[in-house]
Every structure is written in structure tokens, then in C-alpha cells.
Amino acid sequence: MPFTDLGLDELIGYHPESTDPRDFDEFWRRTLDEARSHSGAVKAERVTAQYGLRTVDVDDVRFPGWNGEPVAAWLLRPRGVDGPLPVVVTCIGYSGGRGLPTDQLLWSAAGYAQLVVDSRGQGRDTPDHGMGDGTQWVEGFMTKGIDSPENHYYRRLITDCVRAVDAVAELPGLDGNRIVVTGGSQGGGLALAVAGLSGDRVAAVMPDVPFLCHFREATQIAEEGPYLEIVTYLRRHSQHRVRQTFATLDYFDGVNFARRATAPALFSVGLMDPVCPPRTVYAAFNSYAGEDRTMTVWPFADHGGGYGANPPTQLSWLLDRGLAPER
User: Fold this and answer.
1) Catalytic residue at 15?
2) What pLDDT is recorded for position 138?
3) With a threshold of 0.85, does the pTM exceed it?
4) Structural domains for the chain
């Protein structure tokens, strides 16, 4: 597989023009205020025994997300540790959900608590009721409700992920001052959005090969993956929808969230990634507002990034920033 994008020197200096909507901040303030106006407690049920785990406790969690609708999550933590524990809020990649708790044992093995957030409509435990807008969209989620930012699918999913950070305060044994948000691909884009919308409540963010960044360029150069859903939609519905489509997507672009995020950030990029081309990742990284930002470059990696080499990099980076669990 060849390199799919610019050379590394060009990527390091890549700064896209701003596509920041004038009312971006007001849109998200109104969206989150509305979500938080719905009452509903965070609920957690201990289910460890169902999974045969001896060193990790598992809670099946429900917290109020978009429109107060219940969002499923797993809470995993090392057994016998009282805390308060630093917590890793994990957002999930495209077309996946929270899966099984046995899929997510790394962070509890390292001494962290972990909140694994289901993706509405993608995971099996959190349905997406949508907005009933009647918009035509191709298979997938990228163009669902793309007629306006109010209707778009990612307004709901991003809101859910921000509300997951809110839910940490209602779960016992977690340290609300040490919340780390992470995820790969779609999860990385969601983590960036949460960092941009949650202010200093997020202590660190780790977006791996992040999706949902620099839409206008990504749709022109991505060779595989969900960006092509947008291309298919515009091909089917002709040129007259191009302007409105990208005007909607600007409200969900990781580049615009990065401009508002200040927590220490550890990005990663694969220079042979055909799904999230390196230029789109560097667009967010180079726009990031926080001074403490680091890029892990995997020169010969595809969309899998660093694969098994990435977690040790993350653990070391968190340790250096005082975000490791006490021993």
C-alpha cells in the first residue's frame, strides 16, 4: 500500500482554512442545555458474575443522553480498589457499539476505571429514534438528517458522549478531576468533540486516527470508509445540495472542536490510512488550541494505527501528565 497523502513535512505545516459556522458555539450551547434540561438519574447494575471476571468489576450503566433518552455504557474498574479512580471515557468506532465488557479490559488492568459508551443506532443497546425529518440518506449514518445541523445524526451522538462525561459525577468511586476521553476513528472524532465542548472537565484527550475531521477535504481524497457515503449521497442528489451538505457538516467537524479544546492531547495518525487520510488528522491536530499536544506517527500504518503498540504509548503519556492511578 503506498502513502496516501502529503509528505510528513507538508502535513506538519498543513493548516486548512476555517469553516467555523458563525453560530457554532451558540448551537452547541443550546443543544447541551436542552439535553441537560431533561431529568433522569444515572443507573448502574453490578453484572460482574455474568462474565466470569475475577479481577474486574462490571456495572451495566444507563445515563440520560440526547433528549433525556437512556444511553447504555459499561463501567469497568479493578476489583478491591476504593478509588477515587481516574476514569477513561471511551467512544466507539463507526458501526460499533459498546460490545461486551470482556472486549474492554485494558484500562481496568492498568488500574483505571473505564466508561464505555454505546453509540446510538450503531450499538444494539441504544436505539436512535432520529428526528423524523424525512431527509433522504444513503445507507449508514453520515447523511442521516443532513438537511440541517438540527436534524443531523451526529448532533445526537456527540450529545450522548458529552453527557457521558456529565454522568461520571453520579457514579461512585470515580475522580471527576481526572477524566480522560479517548477513542479510535469515529471514537477519536467523538473524543475531540467532547474535549471541545466540555472545557476543563476533561483532563486529557487521546484521539486515535480520528474520523469526522476536515469533511470538505476528506470527501475528496478518502479511498475507503464512511466519508464515501457523503460522496454517494451528493452523486445521487446532484450538485444543488453540496453547499447545504457541507454547511451542516461544519457543525460536527473535529477541526472546529479542536479549535476549542485545551486539555493535553495525544493524537495518532497512520501515514498509509485510506479511511482517514493523514491530512484530515493533521488538520485537527494543527488547529488544536491546547499547548500540550503530541502526535504519534505510525509511518507504515493503515487505519489500524499503531495496533497493539498504541496502548503502551498512551499509558506512558498519561503517567507523564500525572494521570496514572495511584499504586
Assistant:
1) no
2) 76
3) yes
4) 8-320 (3.40.50.1820)
